[in-house]
Amino acid sequence: MKIAIIAGTRPEVVKLVPVYAALAARAGTTPIWISTEQQVNLNAQALETFGIVPDIRLEPPSPDRTLGGRFAQVMDRLDQVLGELSPDLVLVQGDTSTTAAGAMAAFARRIPIGHVEAGLRTFNLDSPFPEEGWRCVVGQLAAFHFAPTEAAARVLLDLGMAEHRIHMTGNTSVDAIRLSGARVQPEARVPGLRRVVVTVHRRENWGPELEQILAALIALRGRVSDIEIVFVAHANPALRGRVEAALAGQARIRISEPLDYLSFLSLLKSATLALSDSGGLQEEAPVLGLPLLVLRDTTERPEAVEAGVAAMVGVDTGAIVETAAILLTDEALRLKMVRGVSPFGDGYAADRIVDIICAWHPDMATGGDRILAAV
Question: In sequence order, what E strands does the chain have?
């Protein structure tokens, strides 16, 4: 069985590598890695980290095109490749432009689609944009919905997806951390200082919201005297310039270059607290026992908040400072979040996904009683 894995961003690579490895280890399945190069540098960095050499590497989408223009380029190139390959199944992950373009190209070619990390929703098309729209599109087209949690599976059922197409597997981000294992050790800290890690990259935080977040970091540094704030900068030059204008030269605040996956995990392992608008970090932080404040008003991963390992704080300067300061000065309260259990699985989601795929073959109807939900 020939299975096309489509990825073009760092998060997709991280979360699809465990599936690729599990497929490669199974007799009778041939995974084919197609790289759309949506994030040229970060994608290459992640591929190198995991030793993946794409079978097919597409021309990157033009940076001077609009969001829709880049999407059209990726879809057109994928359509051509899928026509030449004729895979039995296409796997896409998450909610990127590559994810939606891959699903639409496969659907147009009448190739079954497996959606890894299915069922995440905020029910607000503006937040996150465009990711919420992309995942809604893929949800309508997928033959296999690999839901990471019970809540995600329930969302899919409520949206009218056929029950036999929904499979609760856990999130492959946990698999990636497990497979990294001993390769990741905590990064050394500045003696006498605890570390707070910050990332900001969502489009909805590119406006005045970013200024509020940056002001909060300066105020937090002034309020808590024994912390070092490490801001992991986004590759976008416009965002980077604004971050440097506000934070460069500030005492006990360090701006880091974008990190490869293993280095970022090492940084997280050395931290006391994290602040981020990242969806992936909402999955990774609980696995590492790192309390997380979510710099957003909505989240498609409410399980972390419900489990008590993350808290929604939004982008208001005062709210960020107050919440972070409480956790940094009340160790008993912070430890309650540290001791929470990750709601995103046990690190064997990829094996469950491959079990489901291998129970199906291209000449049978997708789903049905012969494909068992992996719970």
Answer: 2-7, 30-35, 56-57, 89-93, 113-116, 144-147, 166-168, 194-199, 227-232, 253-256, 273-276, 292-294, 310-312
Q: Is 361 among the catalytic positions?
A: no
Write the pLDDT tens digit of every residue in 135-192: 999 999 999 999 999 999 999 999 999 999 999 999 999 999 999 988 899 999 999 9
Indicate whether 240 pLDDT > 90.
no
pTM: 0.91
Q: What is the C-alpha separation between 288 and 285, in angstroms, rounded?
A: 5
pLDDT tens digits for range 32-70? 999 999 998 888 999 999 999 999 999 999 999 999 999
Between the CA atoms of 301, 124, 277 and 249, what dihedral angle is there, to the nearest 10 degrees?
Answer: -170
Within 10 A of 229 (CB to CB), how many other CB atoms are there? Answer: 23
Predicted confidence at residue 234, as pLDDT, reads 79
Known catalytic residue at 55: no
**Catalytic residue (choose from 57, 164, 178, 234):** 234
Mark whether 126 is an active-site residue.
Answer: no
Q: Is 164 an active-site residue?
A: no
| Whether 115 is catalytic | no
Q: Using DSSP bridges, classify how beta strands 30-35 and 253-256 pair: parallel, antiparallel or unpaired.
A: unpaired
Compute the chain's Rg from CA coordinates: 20
Instruction: Report the C-alpha gap between 215 and 229 in whole angstroms.
Output: 13
